[in-house]
């Protein structure tokens, strides 16, 4: 702007900057910009439209006037022009015969516009800007309460306040003012104000419902409240808080909510902006993304915990997944009796299958680059745990088993990975057979320089062709146990007497190398993966409809506990659908993204988009990942 002014000064030498003739300067600048528009410059067009804007022109004119006023600092020649005009009117009227000019002056001074102008002149001249209040009535009783008349102009929006009745006195109070609602924006109604009248109706003794009827009888227009304002208003020192809901909530199904219409319903995984926590039981929040100004009621963390606990106790007892120990798994393995109808693949069979994998290029890509983390034993070991009654939890479990009960809202912040930060771990999960490994493999194959799997650990002996650190890290049972003891595994388990596990170190090694680590995890390992060092982005691979499964998996094969690569059957699809339902009901809140694996090609493209999003776009992540809680 300074540059523009200098330029303008050159254009019009008659205009001195000292005289503040900005308007003239601007006109010259516009002229200059017009010429540059001929050169088809987009920036110049924009500047032209900006400088031509009527509001800017008017503003500058006002500015000039004010500058002139400040410079001249005029003083009024008289302070009571309206008084003088009355005197004149009186004098003219009392003249026996008056000239034409006197008559014209009389009619001019009599005009309301002129009188208002003179009166405004006097206010400015006398600097008498305070409102004139009527004198206080002298017979006011000493105990008279100060009342306030509040007029709100209601449109179709709700008023944004709830009321309650004092059961002893029958008085009606404003219970709460909803953040961002009409009442809140007016700044005139506050929680604790006692309502005396609504639209002229005295409300003392009325039921809250009746009061609301009076309010609602006027859906639009002015609503007048006569209130006794609360004397000590709580200081509003609210800070904005963002949380991820870990439970579902429906105000319509909650008999304890003070006003269901003011409630906000939410589902697991929704992000809520909490704007008011004044009330110990009912907070005010907005569900994001939101275009609404007005917040609504949600249960506070303590109240929601209580509700969750009540619900939990009212449900039939189920042994919790985290209560199982390794010995139980061993028993589970015994339960894996050989089904007459199945041919159980024995160790040898698996070995030969593993060899065949190599031949099939299953773990090497076209360039012969080895892809870690797809070995059958590891996959079968995990699958066995998953399919065996879902009762085992061989995952590092830093949070409590009842984490949802302990923390129905998880505090989150917006996190944008910086280019110099390690990539976020990409963890895929889904029901067995849905295609998690297929998608993962394709992604790594497409771009082995960008994506890499984590090399698992095992206690089994290496085969002749295997290399430690490639297929597996081969370690002793003692070392494996100590790693378990030290919580170094994201998940681990036993298969045919050997232990297998994915360690945090394996994942970190990939991340530290600058690549994107992509792993598949069982849903019950999600909690273990969600740490600030890995900052995982969790993608749920969801099966499409049964119909689409039948259509798309016609030529695909499934690896079951007993069969290698057998064709999908209808019961596999049904099992997959059932497993998906269970996973979604338990873990939905942890999913950052969902891919419905319908057409494989489309799913791969979707996954690539998701990966880019995960690494390059801001995401809501637990606050503890950004500000780790230090233990004292
Ligand atoms: N969208 C798809 N269309 C057709 N076939 C698919 C699709 N996705 C995966 N498949 C095939 O389904 C079979 C099972 O997929 P995959 O092995 O990836 O399952 P998974 O989810 O890893 O399950 P598990 O962990 O139990 O092995 C494979 O033969 C795979 O090629």
From TrEMBL:
Signal peptide: none annotated. Residues 238-308 form the SH3 domain. Keywords: SH3 domain. Gene3D superfamilies: 2.30.42.10, L27 domain, P-loop containing nucleotide triphosphate hydrolases, SH3 Domains. InterPro entries: GK/Ca_channel_bsu, Guanylate_kin-like_dom, Guanylate_kinase_CS, L27_C, L27_dom, L27_dom_sf, MAGUK, P-loop_NTPase. It comes from the Eukaryota. Belongs to the MAGUK family. This is MAGUK p55 subfamily member 4-like isoform X1. It comes from Betta splendens. The lineage of its organism: Eukaryota, Metazoa, Chordata, Craniata, Vertebrata.
């Amino acid at each position: 702007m300074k540059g523009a002014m200098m330029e303008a000064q050159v254009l019009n030498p008659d205009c001195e900057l000292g005289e503040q003739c900005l308007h003239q300067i601007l006109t010259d600048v516009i002229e200059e910009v017009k010429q540059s528009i001929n050169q088809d410059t987009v920036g110049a067009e924009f500047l032209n439209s900006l400088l031509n804007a009527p509001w800017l022109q008017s503003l500058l004119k006002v500015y000039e006037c004010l500058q002139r006023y400040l410079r001249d600092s005029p003083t009024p020649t008289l302070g009571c022009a309206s008084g003088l005009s009355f005197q004149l009117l009186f004098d003219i009227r009392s003249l026996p015969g008056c000239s034409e000019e006197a008559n014209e002056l009389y009619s001019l001074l009599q005009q309301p516009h002129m009188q208002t102008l003179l009166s405004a002149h006097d206010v400015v001249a006398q600097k008498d800007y305070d409102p004139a209040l009527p004198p206080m009535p002298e017979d006011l009783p000493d105990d008279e309460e100060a009342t306030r008349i509040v007029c709100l102009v209601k449109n179709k929006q709700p008023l944004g306040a709830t009321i309650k009745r004092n059961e002893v006195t029958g008085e009606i109070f404003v219970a709460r003012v909803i953040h961002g609602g009409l009442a809140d924006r007016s700044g005139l109604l506050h929680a604790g104000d006692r309502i005396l009248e609504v639209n002229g109706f005295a409300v003392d003794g009325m039921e809250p419902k009746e009061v609301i009827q009076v309010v609602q009888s006027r859906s639009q227009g002015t609503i007048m409240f006569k209130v006794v304002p609360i004397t000590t208003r709580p200081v509003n020192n609210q800070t904005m808080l963002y949380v991820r809901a870990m439970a579902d909530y429906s105000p319509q199904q909650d008999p304890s909510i003070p006003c269901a219409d003011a409630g906000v319903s939410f589902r697991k995984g929704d992000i809520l902006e909490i704007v008011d926590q004044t009330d110990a039981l009912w907070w005010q929040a907005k569900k994001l993304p939101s275009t609404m100004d007005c917040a609504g009621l949600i249960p506070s963390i303590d109240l929601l915990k209580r509700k969750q606990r009540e619900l939990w106790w009212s449900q039939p007892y189920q042994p919790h997944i985290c209560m199982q120990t390794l010995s139980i798994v061993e028993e589970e393995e015994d339960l894996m009796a050989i089904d007459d109808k199945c041919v159980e693949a024995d160790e040898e069979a698996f070995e030969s299958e593993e060899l065949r994998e190599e031949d099939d290029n299953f773990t090497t890509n076209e360039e012969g680059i080895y892809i870690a983390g797809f070995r059958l034993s590891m996959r079968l070991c995990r699958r066995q745990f998953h399919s065996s009654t879902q009762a085992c939890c061989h995952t590092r479990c830093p949070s409590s088993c009842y984490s949802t009960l302990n923390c129905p809202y998880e505090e989150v912040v917006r996190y944008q990975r910086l280019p110099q930060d390690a990539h976020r771990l990409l963890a895929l999960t889904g029901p067995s057979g849905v295609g998690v490994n297929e998608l993962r493999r394709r992604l790594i194959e497409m771009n082995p320089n960008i994506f890499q799997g984590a090399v698992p650990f095992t206690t089994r002996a290496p085969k002749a062709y295997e290399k430690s650190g490639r297929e597996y890290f081969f370690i002793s049972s003692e070392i494996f146990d100590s790693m378990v003891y030290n919580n170094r595994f994201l998940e681990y388990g036993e298969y045919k007497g050997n232990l297998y596990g994915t360690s945090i170190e394996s994942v970190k090694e990939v991340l530290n190398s600058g690549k994107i680590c992509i792993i598949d995890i069982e849903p019950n390992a999600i909690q273990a993966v969600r740490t600030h060092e890995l900052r995982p982005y969790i993608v749920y691979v969801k099966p499409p409809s049964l119909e689409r499964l039948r259509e798309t998996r016609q030529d695909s094969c499934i690896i079951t506990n007993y069969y290698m690569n057998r064709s999908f059957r209808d019961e596999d699809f049904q099992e997959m659908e059932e497993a998906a339902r269970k996973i979604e009901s338990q873990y939905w809140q942890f999913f950052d993204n969902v891919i419905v694996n319908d057409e494989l090609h489309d799913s791969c493209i979707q996954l690539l988009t998701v990966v880019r999003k995960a690494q390059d776009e801001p995401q809501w992540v637990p606050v503890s990942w950004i500000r780790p809680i230090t233990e004292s």
